[in-house]
Amino acid sequence: MPAPTLVAVAHGSRDPRSAATVAALMDQVRAARPEASARLAFLDLNAPSVGQVLDAVAESGQTHAVVVPLLLGSAFHARVDLPGLLAAATARHPRLQATQADVLGADPRLVWVLDNRVRAAFAARGWNPLHDRVGIALAAVGSSSAVANRSTARLARRFAAQTGHPTEICFATTQPSLTDAIQRLRARGAENLLVAPWFLAPGLLTDRLLAEAPTLPHAAVLGPEPLLAEVVWNRYDAAATRNLPLSA
Predict the structure, then answer these.
(1) What radius of gyration, in Å, describes the C-alpha atoms of the chain?
(2) Spelled out in words, what is the top-level CATH class assigned to the domain 108-212?
(3) Element holding 11 (H helix, E strand)
(4) Residues ≥6 apart with Cβ < 8 Å to 245
(5) What's one Pfam family here (predicted)?
(6) Please, what CATH class does the domain formed by 5-105+225-240 belong to?
């Protein structure tokens, strides 16, 4: 039996930088396994859509697709939106099996990438994190799901424990805001503040964070990054060997 087709699903954005970053990541994904079939789809705002890509997979004669959400959190898109799209595609194509993999999440390798982005931003400013009383505002998208937001907050605590830097979580779309995080870091004695975006790609929300704190340095986003491509394939491998429920 041929290996399942990888369908990597990104959120989508009106900002062309986002799609360009995801496309560059997919180049790294394909380079890691040139013999494998890997396609990119978007949940919204960009083409091709998830449905279009799964239709193309089925029409090519493939009978199994492993769908990897390029998402850092498991909230509405991973738990409701994407499973519904997969169910609709398999209803259209009864011979097609669509297995949803886990989200990328707070994988330790991505936390390592985040640490590298922070270190690079420190170096660009000439900061010595051991002596310059730095504080990190770890900025994520945010969700309507309190459970998802608490999971991201745990990431901030893990990052602080790993790096030793005072770290406060904040969100671009909900509370606490970046301004809240800055105030908390100042209250903790941090003098040099850095915004660390927990985002795969730049876009409208990272611009919103820049506008909220234009005088602070902002580290680079996570992608594209070969380690990120490695995580994508790890999620694919795990799902390909077991039939995960669509609501995973």
Answers:
(1) 19
(2) alpha beta
(3) none
(4) 100
(5) CbiX
(6) alpha beta
Residue 92 burial (CB count, 10 A): 12
So where are the chain's domains?
Answer: 5-105+225-240, 108-212
Asked whether this chain's domains 5-105+225-240 and 108-212 adopt the same fold, the reply is yes
Token digits of residue 236: 């694919």
Inter-residue contact 197 to 139 (CB < 8 Å): yes
Nearest partner of 194 among 247, 113, 126, 141, judged by Cα? 126
Burial class (CB in 10 A: 0-12, 13-18, 19+), 152: buried
Alpha carbons 72 and 114: distance in angstroms, whole number: 12
Kindly give the confidence (pLDDT) of every residue in the chain, 248 residues in length, as a single tens digit, with 9 standing for 90 and above: 789 999 999 999 999 999 999 999 999 999 999 999 999 999 999 999 999 999 999 999 999 999 999 999 887 888 889 999 999 999 999 999 999 999 999 899 999 999 999 999 999 999 998 888 999 999 999 988 888 899 899 999 999 999 999 999 999 999 999 999 999 999 999 999 999 999 999 999 999 999 999 999 999 999 999 999 999 999 999 999 875 444 33
Give, rounded to a whole angstrom, the gap between the first and last alpha carbons of the chain.
Answer: 25
Beta strand ranges found along 123-221 (DSSP E): 134-140, 167-171, 192-197
83: three-class secondary structure by DSSP: helix
Chain-centroid distance of CA 7 in Å reads 15
- Residue 135: predicted pLDDT: 96
pTM recorded for the entire structure: 0.92
Return the half-sphere exposure (C-beta side, CA atoms, 13 A cut-off) of residue 121. 22
